[in-house]
Amino acid sequence: MPSVPQPAAPTDDAAPRHDWTVAEVRAVFDLPFADLLYRAQSVHRRCFDPNGVQVSTLLSIKTGDCSEDCGYCSQSARHRTGVEAEPLMDVAEVLEAASAAKAAGASRFCMGAAWRNPRERDLPSLVEMVRGVKALGLETCMTLGMLSAGQTERLAGAGLDYYNHNLDTSPQFYASVVTTHNYEDRLETLRHVRSAGIGVCCGGILGMGEGVDDRAALLQTLANLPQHPESVPINQLVPAEGTPLAHAPAPDPLDFVRTVAVARIVLPRSMVRLAAGRSAMSDELQALCFLAGANSIFYGEKLLTTGNPETEHDRRLFARLGVHPL
């Protein structure tokens, strides 16, 4: 029987590492399920309140008509999905939505725009949005596509706390999903964000046809960044009619939990967020994800253009689990 590579055993699992190999990460994936969850929960308890979950709300501030061809995205102009293009929202509308999110219990307000990259003429409004949301007492996050160094610095000057820019999958599988930009383009934006002093929110999507090795390579890439992302969204593909991935099979639920657990182990001090796809998850599956180390969710009834569990349902789930929002 061939030998199986074993994960490295650092003296402190809670100490961030930046030298993982894909084989090591894959070996963690392959642990027996109970052993994997025990290890992930042990790391989680050393780094975080085990019953605390950070709550964010995501608003689409500019919808549709994106020039990119991301195979999963309902907002690409290259796909016929029925999503109506909408221009950048007025600042007042965004601040009204942020106030409602805070009243519902969110601590972070995320603003997403369907762009390859923002235009210079849009920067003043984006800066005003960041300043206005921060004035409400909320953490701010944006996802606007790729950024130049100068754009990143302007957003940092406005006080932007986090920037979301997902790597989506492994470097090897990426070209199977997107062809209008490449993996290095994504990494370059992450470098601009870090250089400007903005926190990084960066994760991936499960269910696009990738294999376990791709999931391991994605998490290895994130773990080996010079500084781990502060937030790591783990998304489950929400298939959208009209996209190339409209009929992609959903990942096995326990494989999803495994991915959350491995993310917690290799990114011990990052917030691991259950993001897109929660509306298709049972309460029991979400509970397993929390046990595996997830400690952040998106709150609210919509994520950009896809559904999300209702706020009251999340409150009831939190009560059943003895979880409190951070």
What does this structure look like?
With 326 residues, the protein is of the alpha/beta class. 36% of the residues lie in helices and 15% in strands. Strands 1, 2, 3, 4, 5, 6, 7, 8, 9 and 12 form a ten-stranded parallel beta sheet that branches. It has a two-stranded antiparallel ribbon with strand order 10-11. Helix 2 crosses helix 8 (253-266) and helix 8 (253-266) packs parallel to helix 9.
Topology:
Blueprint: H1 22-29, H2 33-47, E1 52-62, H3 91-103, E2 108-113, H4 123-135, E3 139-143, H5 149-158, E4 162-164, H6 183-195, E5 199-201, E6 204-206, H7 212-223, E7 231-236, H8 253-266, E8 271-274, H9 283-291, E9 296-298, E10 302-303, E11 306-307, H10 311-321, E12 324-325
Parallel strand pairs: 1-2, 1-9, 1-12, 2-3, 3-4, 4-5, 6-7, 7-8, 8-9
Antiparallel strand pairs: 10-11
In short:
The chain has 326 residues and is of the alpha/beta class. The chain has helices at 22-29, 33-47, 91-103, 123-135, 149-158, 183-195, 212-223, 253-266, 283-291, 311-321, and strands at 52-62, 108-113, 139-143, 162-164, 199-201, 204-206, 231-236, 271-274, 296-298, 302-303, 306-307, 324-325.
User: Helicity level, as a percent range?
Assistant: 25-40%
SS element count, helices = 10
Order of helices and strands: HHEHEHEHEHEEHEHEHEEEHE
Based on the structure, what is the oligomeric state of the protein chains?
single chain
Number of strands: 12
Category from helices, strands and their pairing:
alpha/beta
Runs in which pLDDT lies below 50 for 5 or more consecutive residues are 1-11
> Hey, roughly how much beta strand do the residues contain?
15-25%
C-alpha Rg, in Å? 19 Å
User: Main β-sheet: number of strands, strand sense, barrel status?
Assistant: 10 strands, parallel
Average of per-residue pLDDT values:
89
Distance between the termini: 47 Å
The rough form would be described as globular
